[in-house]
Amino acid sequence: MGCAIRKVRVISRLLIRARAALGHQETRRRAADDERRQAKRNSLADKLKFEAKALADLKIKRAKIDGERRTAEADLGPVRYLATSIGADDQNVIRWFIPVVAVLPDPAAVLLLLAATPSKAAQQPRPGGPARNSA
Q1: Mind listing the pLDDT tens digit for each residue in 87-123?
Q2: Are 79 and 94 spatial neighbours (Cβ–Cβ below 8 Å)?
Q3: How far is CA 58 from each of CA 48, 63, 72, 90, 123, rounded to the nearest angstrom?
Q4: Of 11, 47, 61, 97, which has the most beta carbons under 10 Å away?
Q5: Dihedral sign of CA atoms 52, 53, 58, 62 in order
Q6: Contact 83/90 with Cβ under 8 angstroms?
């Protein structure tokens, strides 16, 4: 019986060592799993930062384009008013409006040019009056 007890003790020690070895392996496996999970979290966090930056850039571009669109709409306001008042579409009004504005001179500019240009009657001397010196 003494021999059996020794064998049981030896087997118990071997079991304890085996469990300890398995526990170390399990701990190492868990640590490796934790490292993999952490690396994956870090990778996802980096991707999230990158995508958030890209989204912010796109929002900035969208705001810029919206501002330009509003400016263009404000510039086309008179043309749309004219188109609505004559019952035509915007494109036809723009097609005719630009050449008309380009061809018709500014009336005030024409009046200023006429006022600045001396007439022939003003340049000729008056009969019976002193001659004007043109210096």
Answers
A1: 888 888 888 888 887 777 777 788 888 888 877 666 6
A2: yes
A3: 15, 9, 21, 31, 69
A4: 97
A5: positive
A6: yes
The rounded radius of gyration (Å) of the Cα atoms in the chain is 48
pTM for this structure?
0.43
Cα–Cα distances in Å, from 108 out to 7, 10, 84, 103, 113? 122, 118, 28, 15, 9
DSSP-derived letter for residue 132 is P
In 3D space, the residue among 97, 64, 108, 46 whose CA is nearest the CA of residue 89 turns out to be 97
Side chain identity, residue 69: R
Residue 76 · residue 86 · CB < 8 Å = no
Amino acid 81 reads Y
Distances (CA, A) of 122 to 61, 62, 102: 63, 63, 33
Amino acid at 134: S
Nearest Cα to 97, choosing from 69, 70, 76?
A: 76
- CA torsion 24-27-33-39 (nearest 10°) is -100
Task: Report yes or no: 86 and 93 within 8 Å, Cβ to Cβ.
Answer: yes
